[in-house]
Design brief:
By secondary structure, the chain is α/β, with parallel strands linked by helices. The protein has helices at residues 12-26, 36-49, 76-88, 103-119, 138-147, 161-170; strands at 30-31, 52-55, 69-71, 94-100, 124-130, 151-155, 179-182, 202-203. The protein has a five-stranded parallel beta sheet, with helices on both faces. Helix 1 (12-26) packs parallel to helix 2. It is elongated.
Length: 208
Amino acid sequence: LEVVYGDTKGDSKQSITVFRQLLLSENIKVFMPFLTGETLAIQPIAKDEDVIVMSLTVHEPAANKDMNTFRLSYSFQAEALAMADYLMKQDLKSISVIYSEDAASKYQVEKTFVPTLEANGIKDIYQESFKVRQKDFRSLVARVKNQDPTDIYIAGFGSDFPNILKELKIQDLMPPRVRVTGGVPMWEVSHFVKPKMLEGIIFASPPL
């Protein structure tokens, strides 16, 4: 078994270029993209070329498009259900959901997390989305502060979280004043901020 690597730089358009190059030059029959955007981008071509996509995407619908794609990771949908269940057991009153506009996070929040809370009687739910790699969160966090939530839930890539957390701290929206939660991507944050920044923040995942 020979493993060949291709660097997409996390870019969906670049993933198509890399996919085609490897397909032509290496005659590869099985591809393993890491990200949701990469997976969704190469799926139509993989189906046409009849090659297998074994994806590490957390976006559950990505594996439902055709028989050529398999998903090897936990799903954001299962994570959303687990976190919603946890929060409803913590006397949740109002929540501001800060989420990335990437396909997996958007689906997680809009199709699973928020509907689950609504179905269980939570009415004060606010949603604020941001772009992947966004740097400035001052106005977004200011809107969250005006919402005066008891809870904040953050969904997206962990690499985007440090700037969000720093702005939450500046505007006094961190524990213990506000309960802050997130899913598995929160694990990445420890590589970018000092441990003290994470004190009181709760992040969890369903069993893998």
